[in-house]
Design a protein that fits this description.
alpha+beta, 4 helices, four-stranded antiparallel sheet
Length: 235
């Protein structure tokens, strides 16, 4: 805060025709605030007026940053690392799928499809995102899941959870931060049960004798080629 005085006068010789003077305290810069008294003198009339005025942006308002959370979720959906295949066929543990060069996922009929992300929690009222204010959606929910063009029934999937820091989406003072757990489990994705779409799919089987697989742990590359040739011949 600073004490300031400023004045202006119009004179004719030694006679003051009119004058104005200000004496005030000034503080700022966010926001600027001036409080004091103004004097106006015209010939023989002298008037004093108290004043208090504020201008400029508040410091807290000027430092606020805003973020859209829905694009963060969209990026998480497009990230293949958030999609997992969980095998439920334990008799097939010795079969390994050949690695693909592209980023597509290969799903077997017995696999579970899981989507789980740790960017935005679902079913949570959010009043911030980190240090930022939210400018689009303050709550995201999973209301419908479609497999192809068909909406799934509730018994065909289950919601999944991941750990989130409460301070990610909730404004807290220092006392609340100390009382709050470091992480809480929030809804973050879903799991689709095995067998989805099996009625619309088709299965091709080959007549390969069981004795051909008696010792799969020591099977050689040439044996694999021979078995594949048998499968193609009998398919």
């Amino acid at each position: 805060m600073a004490d300031m005085s400023v004045g202006l006068a119009v004179k004719l010789g030694s006679v003051t025709l009119c004058s104005i003077s200000l004496s005030f305290d000034l503080s700022g810069p966010a926001r600027w605030h001036a409080k004091g008294k103004a004097h106006i003198c015209v010939l023989f009339f002298d008037v004093g007026v108290d004043f208090s005025c504020t201008w400029g942006k508040d410091q807290n308002e000027s430092d606020k940053k805003y973020i859209d959370v829905f694009p963060l979720y969209s990026e998480a959906v497009a990230d293949n690392s958030n999609w997992k295949l969980i095998s439920t066929d334990y008799s097939d543990n010795m079969v390994k799928m050949m690695e693909r060069r592209d980023e597509e996922l290969v799903v077997l009929p017995s696999d579970l499809i899981s989507f789980n992300q740790s960017v935005v929690p679902f079913e949570r009222n959010m009043n911030c995102y980190g240090e930022n204010e939210i400018s689009d959606y303050s709550r995201l929910e999973i209301s419908d899941i479609k497999f192809g063009c068909k909406s799934l029934d509730k018994d065909q999937y289950e919601l999944d959870k991941a750990s989130f820091a409460p301070t990610l989406t909730q404004k807290m003072d220092d006392d609340d931060k100390l009382k709050s757990p470091s992480y809480v489990y929030e809804t973050s994705g879903f799991k689709l049960y095995a067998g989805l779409g099996s009625e619309e799919g088709s299965t091709i089987t080959g007549n390969i004798a069981c004795e051909d697989f008696e010792d799969v742990s020591n099977i050689s590359a040439s044996d694999v080629d021979e078995l594949m040739a048998k499968w193609r011949a009998n398919a």
